[in-house]
Amino acid sequence: MKNIVGIGLLILMLVSTWYFLINGVDGGLIFYSSLILTLFLVIIGFNIFLENRDPIQTITWLVIFCAFPFIGFIFYFLFGRNFRKERIFRKKYFLDKQTFVKISGEAGYNERIKEMGENPQQLITLANRLGNSPVSFTTETRVLRNGEETFSNIIEELKKARHHIHLEYYIVRDDRIGVLLKDILIQKVKEGVKVRFLYDAVGSWKLARSYIDELKNAGAEMVAFGPLHFPLLNNKFNFRNHRKIIVIDGSVGFIGGLNIGDEYLGQDQKFGSWRDTHLIIKGEAVRTLQLIFLQDWYYSTNNSFLSDEYLMAGMTNHHGHGGVQLIGGGPDSEWTIIKSIFFKMITSAEKSVWIASPYFVPDDDILQALKVAALSGLDVRLLVPKNPDKRIVFHASRTYFPELLASGVRIFQYNEGFMHSKIIIVDDQLASIGTTNIDMRSFHLNFEVNAFLYRTESTQQLVNDYMEDMKVSQELEIDAFSKRNFGLKLLESTCRLLSPLL
Q1: Annotated catalytic, 278?
Q2: Got the DSSP string for 374-386?
Q3: For residue 364, with 0-12 CB atoms within 10 Å meaning exposed, 13-18 middle and 19 or more buried, which class applies?
Q4: Residue 139 DSSP SS3
Q5: Do 193 and 165 touch, CB atoms closer than 8 A?
Q6: Residues 6+ apart with CB under 8 A from 115
Q7: Res 327: pLDDT
Q8: Distance set, CA 171 to CA 56, 85, 177, 207, 244 (Å)
Q9: Residue 284 CA neighbour count, 13 Å, CB half
Q10: Which of 242, 278, 282, 444 is an active site residue?
Q11: Which of 422, 366, 359 is nearest to 385 (CA)?
Q12: How far apart are CA 252 and CA 48, in angstroms?
């Protein structure tokens, strides 16, 4: 059905273009162009109706088509096509699941899971069932709280590489830090190290071709995830790889919020200081991170490296306090994996829920969970940036603040530069750190990866860092926030209308 609709739209577009070229701009142009656009929108609207999307999304699209027909038409082709995402990535999902189940079966459960308590045990079980990933108690982690700490550790570990380096990033810049990393990778290739670099075609669309060619000519493998030759006709345009992964020799891994670019070092004049959180991982859990990369690599290249050479390398146990579980989520999953785990974290909290997210556009499930937690007397806090980098998302997020504040959620705006950390901390004992924002795109459209920490030393470090961030943040008061001017409220409400699509 969807192929027929797509072909029909293409034929109509070609016919209309031919008509305009033959007849020029005459009195009938407006009539026929309006007629053709109306036909397009009727077909698209009927298609959306048949997809059985969330009713709010369906209504939002129909309102946009009525209010802004031409803009809505373009916007839909770029960002709105569903095409049954689980069908698009079905092969990838089943291959991933088979591989993870095999590894999970080998690792099994440790008796220490029972010692974690009821709530952590339920969360671990849920994450394992949804993400097919075991928890590790022999993994060491350390929190890196800014670009300087993160990149200095990355550079140090890259220089130690002896067998392979695997990188997977949403954004890669051809700037000072990007060039420095490129030069290190080229040097490691010369030393005989295998370098594989997966970058997102949309996130890194500004990356210079010369950057890619230099790495390839040196012998590194560099591949675009989800390349787009005809964006308007590409049904995968909206599904992006938002992961940030480095795996070195199978024994050291990095994940978190930082892409590769100078702005993440606080060197962008627009944002100034850049507050972010990354994680270095050593030990058993790195294997899961390796698996996520290798499966993404296989999907993009059809080349598989699922062998002991990569999955058992560097499996030296480290002295870890608590449990570490790596979970990948994306549109290839039959469940909204990471969102479901977030929901469980919030609803199982007994004392506190602390969240940091640069882009806060929750769906009804997460929004209701936060309000109920606050109304139940829990200490629920939300840390967001004061200054936006994506204005539509920024203004849309603020429309959720009044109902959250009214329910007792404390909201803080980070004042020192831009806050890009993606953190959830529950009861000072359980935490999530990774690439997932509290928004529709991360939950439903992007490929993401998060580390879930159960009573680790890194969990306590995240608590300490969050408390430090509170000191340089301004708390919103419901009375003062409600007094913002009508024009701003109108802008926010307009952006809120688009929130199911963001």
Answers
A1: no
A2: HHTT-EEEEEEES
A3: exposed
A4: strand
A5: yes
A6: none
A7: 95
A8: 31, 23, 12, 8, 9
A9: 21
A10: 242
A11: 359
A12: 44
- CB neighbours of residue 63 within 10 Å: 12
Class of residue 25 by CB neighbours under 10 A (exposed 0-12, middle 13-18, buried 19+):
exposed
pLDDT 10s digits, 92-148: 554 555 555 454 444 445 566 777 777 788 888 888 888 888 888 889 999 999 999
> Can you tell me the distance from the alpha carbon of 67 to that of 58, in angstroms, rounded to the nearest whole number?
14
- Residue from 182, 236, 395, 422 carrying the catalytic annotation: 422
Which DSSP string corresponds to 284-345?
TTHHHHHHHHHHHHHHHHS----SHHHHSTT------SSEEEEEEE-TTSSS-HHHHHHHHH
Catalytic-role residue among 85, 188, 344, 420: 420
Distance separating alpha carbons of residues 293 and 167, to the nearest angstrom: 8
346: part of which helix (H) or strand (E)?
A: helix 337-347
Q: Which of 200, 276, 332, 427 is catalytic?
A: 427
Catalytic residue among 164, 166, 236, 244: 244
Whose tokens are 């959250």? That residue is 404
> Is 188 a catalytic site residue?
no
* Catalytic site includes residue 444: no
Which residue, chain included where needed, has tokens 């990535």? 89
213 is catalytic: no
Enter the pTM of the model. 0.82
Question: Is there a catalytic annotation at residue 249?
Answer: yes
Q: Where are the alpha helices (DSSP H) in 376-477?
A: 391-398, 401-407, 440-444, 457-471
Between strands 352-356 and 423-426, the pairing is antiparallel
> Residue 204: exposed, middle, or buried by beta-carbon count in 10 A (0-12, 13-18, 19+)?
buried
Contact 113, 144 (CB under 8 A): no
Q: In the 8-state DSSP scheme, what is residue 136?
A: B
DSSP-derived letter for residue 80 is I
How far apart CA 255 and CA 324 sit, in angstroms, is: 13
Residues 6+ apart with CB under 8 A from 52: none
Q: What pLDDT, in 10s, does the model give residues 142-192?
A: 999 999 999 999 999 999 999 999 999 999 999 999 999 999 999 999 999
Residue 395 falls in the annotated catalytic set:
no
